Amino acid sequence: MDNLFILINVVVLLALIGLLIYMQKKHVSFSKRVFTGMGIGIVLGAILQAIYGEGSSILTGTLDWYSIVGSGYVRFLMVIVVPLVMISIIRAIINLDKTKELGKMAGWIIGILISTTLIAALVGIGSALVFDLSAEQIEAGQAETDRGLSIEQSFTEMEGQTTPQRILNFIPSNIFLDMTGERPTSVIAVVIFSVIIGIATLGVQRKQPEHAAIFTKGINAIFSVIMRIVTLVLRLTPFGVLALMTNMVASTNYQGIIQLGKFVIASYAALLLMFIIHLVLVGVFGLNPMTYLKKVIPVLGFAFTSRSSAGTIPLNISAQKNALGVDDGAANISASFGATMGQNGCAGIYPAMLAVMIAPTVGIDPLSLDFIIQLVLITAISSFGVAGVGGGATFAAIIVLSSMGLPVGLAGLLISIEALIDMGRTALNVNGSMVSGTLTSKVMRNLNHETYQDKKSVVENTGI
């Protein structure tokens, strides 16, 4: 009987996918299809949990089948990340007029990512204080206790690594290993290797132009094929968002959300405020924030549902180049770096909020100016090296809490609402990388203002 219900649920998903395909054939805009998929996913997920109950065998079996669409789509995105980043960066560097522009571009991107993370830490501290959050208010169940033990074990494993050692992990020692995405810093390692190839090609252009011309022609041909693959994969976005959102809503622990509702509200208040700060920065640099917002909404929608900064890289790059008018180099480097360093949500707001919550449990005044300054600086520095240990927000929190002398095990108290908050954090992370690319391109005077002002969305400019 269980299999019959599971089959019915799968047929329902296929019917809804058929609806999205029909909308595509009717030339409904990509943005509308993405948000339609998200809305349907929320409703379907809530209905499935209401009918079958959280953790039931029917619901578990249904979500396993649904993950073929959702997780399968994310895997398709992940598989094109390395070739897209590598070829795009090599091509962008080959087209640079001067190699010194590369250093300036990377400097601006990293500077914006780290600076906004510092601001995000302040926002996280402020939100925790305004909402009067404290770890003592949270009752630890078995799941939280187990998560705390796991975190303490992870901390023991990484305790010997310093920030310089984590940064050293950015440098590739086996590029073929990094092409598999095996290491947490694989994307940045690929970026560094691609930069080396690009710079080497510029050198060959001066001494052996005929060889460089052959290589450049090959890169351009491969780039065309890869961009076509990207277009094909991105066309699946509405279906992926539908399945991902359904799985997330259907498996959400609503009781945990009710118990920790104050922290959820405080987290999203901080995320929203930081997002507004991003828009203010866009305006300060002479660009229309509302135009920017309209262009990036589909990307943020996918980041929100997928909870994967790395998986969002192809859509991130495509939006920057084709909707915001960002040049190839800035778009690729900012999307790649932003997925592994300077993450405003995971490495900025979240660790800062946890530190303020946990500080009173060990007799530290979170209102102390010394504590706040130390916390902000450590958060900003740690965000640069957190990719070396992997694990996203949890490991960012471990680094910050351990550096502040706070108990890392208490970071497991929020496991029941981790997925819900992580959705907002990921969207903010991705937006931070897009802001860094856009502002850098503006500063470098490489921004195509005509494309930026064009009211068409990213996908309508790429044929999706």
Provide the residue-averaged pLDDT: 83
Q: Which series of helices and strands comes N to C?
A: HHHHHHHHHHHHHHHHHHHH
Class from helix and strand fractions: mainly alpha
Main sheet? none
How many H/I helical runs? 20
Subcellular location: Membrane
Membrane topology: Multi-pass membrane protein
Transmembrane segments: 6-22, 34-52, 72-94, 106-131, 186-204, 225-245, 265-287, 367-387, 393-415
Protein name: L-cystine uptake protein TcyP
Q: What's the helix and strand layout?
A:
Blueprint: H1 2-25, H2 30-52, H3 57-94, H4 100-130, H5 142-158, H6 163-168, H7 175-179, H8 186-207, H9 209-234, H10 237-250, H11 254-259, H12 261-284, H13 289-306, H14 313-322, H15 328-338, H16 344-358, H17 369-385, H18 392-403, H19 418-443, H20 449-453
Helix pairs in contact: 1-2, 1-3, 2-10, 2-13, 3-8, 3-9, 3-10, 3-15, 4-12, 4-15, 4-16, 4-17, 4-19, 8-9, 10-13, 12-13, 12-16, 12-19, 13-19, 14-15, 14-19, 15-19, 16-17, 16-18, 16-19, 17-18
Main location: membrane
InterPro entries: Na-dicarboxylate_symporter, Na:dicarbo_symporter_sf
Membrane topology: Multi-pass membrane protein
